[in-house]
Amino acid sequence: MEKRDLLFEGSSKRLYSTDxxxxxxxxxxxxxxxxxxxxxxxxxxxxxVNLGIAxxxxxxxxxxxxxxxxxxxxxxxxxxxxxxxxxxxxVVVYNAISSRLAQRFKLEDGHQIDFPIIEYFxxxxxxxxxxxxxxxxxxxxxxxxxxxxAMGRMASKANAILKxxxxxxxxxxxxFKLEFGMSGENIYIGDEISxxxxxxxxxxxxxxLEREKYIQDLASVEKVYRELYDRLTRAV
Length: 236
Fold this sequence. Notes:
Elements: E1 3-9, E2 13-18, E3 23-28, E4 31-34, E5 39-42, H1 46-63, E6 70-73, E7 78-82, E8 85-96, H2 99-105, E9 112-122, E10 131-132, H3 134-139, H4 145-168, E11 171-183, E12 186-190, E13 198-202, E14 207-209, H5 221-233
Antiparallel strand pairs: 1-2, 2-3, 3-7, 4-5, 6-7, 8-9, 8-11, 9-10, 11-12, 11-13, 13-14
Helix pairs in contact: 1-5
């Protein structure tokens, strides 16, 4: 598979065309974005570990018939993926109150909830990534109602599958983000599922595992991400 032109560069990934029109190479980089100022630094080894986690989770979801863009891992930092027309909407799933919800609803961070919460955000940094609903998506041309419902169903199913997986590893999946794209008439989960897009709670060590906590100790990022990889991928 020949890696060709750069199609897109994000905060921690690069997407390249290949010699096959329907496939692309997604490269996971060692870049680490420090919020809220958005400055960029390098954490050696982070891309390789994130690729390992995303590969495992995509394959795990595929085993339960949740379609993703993943095809195969083809290198230390590279994943072969289906080339999708991305839907500009981020789907965020919450299994507990995270800092994002705690501030909005004046609740305690970590407060347990009886049912998962699913929210939709327009992927537009220029507009501040505003929350949207199905009627916004239809009226403003971002997605069709059927697409919104399909994304909601897939996010809900993925959450049930991953939540159970994490619980068996002594972890709680607090929050994670999904992005979706189209290939023909079919919708797939795209982008990544990794510590860069998720928040976890380690029940065994009674600690939160989320990227914001390591901004002051960047040396620990790769170590913590690798520990999460080892926990997830070990045989039950």
